[in-house]
Amino acid sequence: MKRFFPAILAAMLTLLPSQAAATWSIIAVDTRTGLVVIASATCVTAEGLRTRGGLKSIQAIVVPGVGVAAAQAGVDRTRANQMLIFEEMRNNTDPDDILRMLSTDENFQRRQFGIVDLEGR
């Protein structure tokens, strides 16, 4: 039993509940069909989502017929980044150029951005 104790202890510790402290987003487009998808995990609490109008209001940017983007981690409460992404995507701006524009945000290093359009850029 002694030799199995470390493995049993490690297994038990992995089952303990803990609070998430990381975020991720996946965005994709099917350039043939025009379908877009966004999936993400966030550390924003359920209450935080309700008071902000849901996940779409703080993270997802969907521009029908153009593409999809994600903006999360250090949340921009002004929504300036989301609006910049939305407007530039509507103007058919290359996603790399949009990211360069976003890099002027003083909190750029604390944020996560992903942008893809139906041109596959």
Strand order of the largest sheet: 3-4-5
Helix content: 25-40%
Q: State the end-to-end distance.
A: 57 Å
* Number of H- or I-type helical stretches: 5
Structural class: alpha+beta
Task: Give the overall shape.
Answer: elongated
Element pattern in H and E: HEEHHEEHHE
Unreliable sequence segments: none
Percent of residues in β-strands: 15-25%
Q: What's the average pLDDT?
A: 82
Rounded radius of gyration (Å): 19 Å
**Structural domain tally:** 1
**Count of extended strands:** 5
Q: How does the major sheet shape up? A: 3 strands, antiparallel
Protein name: DUF1028 domain-containing protein
Organism: marine metagenome
Describe this structure in words.
There is one protein chain. The protein has 121 residues and is an alpha+beta fold. It has helices spanning 5-15, 46-52, 55-58, 80-90, 95-102, and strands spanning 24-29, 36-41, 60-63, 67-73, 111-117. The chain has one domain (19-117). The chain contains 5 helices and 5 strands; from the N terminus they run αββααββααβ. The relative contact order is 0.17. This is DUF1028 domain-containing protein. It holds the Pfam family DUF1028.
